Predict the structure.
Amino acid sequence: MSTEKINQIVEEAKASFQSCQNPDELYKSKVKVLGKKGALSLVMQEMKNLSPEERPAFGQSVNEAKKSLESLYASLSEELVKQEMAQKLAQSMLDPELPGFEVKTGTYHPIELVIREMIDILSRIGFSVRLGPLIEHDDLNFTALNFPEDHPAREMQDTFYMKHDHVLRTHTSPIQVRTLRSESLPLRILAPGSVFRCDSDTTHAPNFYQVEGLWVDKKVSMAHLKGVVDFFAKSYFGDKTQTRFRPSFFPFTEPSAEVDCTCPLCAGQGCRVCSKTGWIEIGGCGLVHPNVLKMSDVDPDQWQGFAFGFGVERMAMIKYRLSDIRLFNENDLRFLEQFR
Ligand code: FA5
């Protein structure tokens, strides 16, 4: 096999490459000469018929031939790809200079935003988050929280009952019991989550959110509770916000109170949102009832605690000046997109 033969293969391949009209044709032409069964590979098989002296020069010629064809292939291929692209663009309706489609990014739901802000504020004073199940045993939702057997909240009209003494939890307070029974003291926890009640109008939803707080330690008093709630209200609604506590009743706290804060919309002057009173109720609170501690194996002579439960929708409605709670569940993007 002579080097002329190799040169002839190279010349023929170059002519074939140059006559190709598109990248596909060029690739096929390349395979014919440089592929595993291509002309140059077959030539290499002739090596065994040569004398050992002839072999190095022959091998070198074949390698040079390959290199020159590969480099010609690379440059022609780039050129043909460009030509093909230009043809396609000229034929199609595509205008690469038109602006692209708007990419819509998601936003947090306003309820999620409020929960995150509440957690952020209260975690600054040592509270950390605990979660509980949405379906609770009747015992944890009511009995362990000192609800008497005949308490009206247990009635079918208020509570969604499920099979086998289970309920859709009506408040986040069962997480108090779960935490007291499973963790060591002292503790400070926050329990955000969804709760359910048979209740529906412009300010009450059947499925709404609460954020529960529980602080248990030695020598905890109403003064600590007031300090924490006031800190929270000022951080959330603004420095000038004031809080007040009205005596109330919850089976699981004693004493119990409803917390009001000065209406952030009219700064306590009286407006439509606060029904001209200057105050808005944000939730319930109190010192943990000794019976609740006892039922969770905590000695009330050694430990005391306070708890609070705030309605998240209520917080959001005040902050974002909304008058209808149903807006949160309608999934109307025009509403949701405002909370970026
Ligand atoms: C409770 O649920 C108590 N577990 C709160 C508590 C916790 C008291 C710890 C003491 C210690 P209440 O039923 O008042 O309390 O609900 C608390 C808040 O949830 C209310 O102030 C209100 O903001 C909100 N809320 C109650 N019902 C609804 C409803 N149907 N829709 C929207 N928000 C509601």
Residues 171, 173, 197, 199, 204-205, 208, 210, 212, 250, 253, 281, 283-286, 307-309, 311, 313-314, 325 surround adenosine-5'-[phenylalaninyl-phosphate] (CB under 6 Å). Strands lie at 128-129, 135-137, 166-168, 187-196, 207-217, 243-250, 253-262, 279-288, 304-311. The CA atoms of residues 34 and 41 lie 7 Å apart.
